[in-house]
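hey so u asked for the seq, here:
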Amino acid sequence: MRLLPSRTLRCALLSLVSAALSCALAIPAAAGQGGKFKWWHSERFIRELALTTDQTARIDAVFQASWPALHAAKSDLDRLETELSRIIAEGTASEAQVLQQIDRVEASRSAMGRTRSLMLYRMHKLLTPDQRVRLKALYEAVEREKAQSHATKPR
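ran it, structure tokens below
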């Protein structure tokens, strides 16, 4: 059996952690900064995860520290995507110019993803292993509830 290099293992672990918490943060809500659901303030999540007041405050501090960079990255991405759409719609740019703008858009998207993943990792570190398992299960339950409510709504 061949062992993975530690860098590869760290990248794989970070991806797994990011994916798990990405799910939890992706739960939509009508309120909250940037339209995102602050699960660590939800009575249901606090109760079912048994979050302490200290954990809630520390998770919120991670979010608040990350928010300006995430907001700026999203604004930059939106601006670059708008420019790409304009260039494509005009149809006068060379392929090289279009590719250059695509590269800018994707670099911006990547930077935003790195910032978000690091935030999620920092939040994840504040939870116990049991809380991480329960967070994943709670997210899956919420997703099932959403799917059921969408399936029963008349169209």
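The mean pLDDT is 83. The longest helix spans residues 53-90.
lmk if thats what u needed
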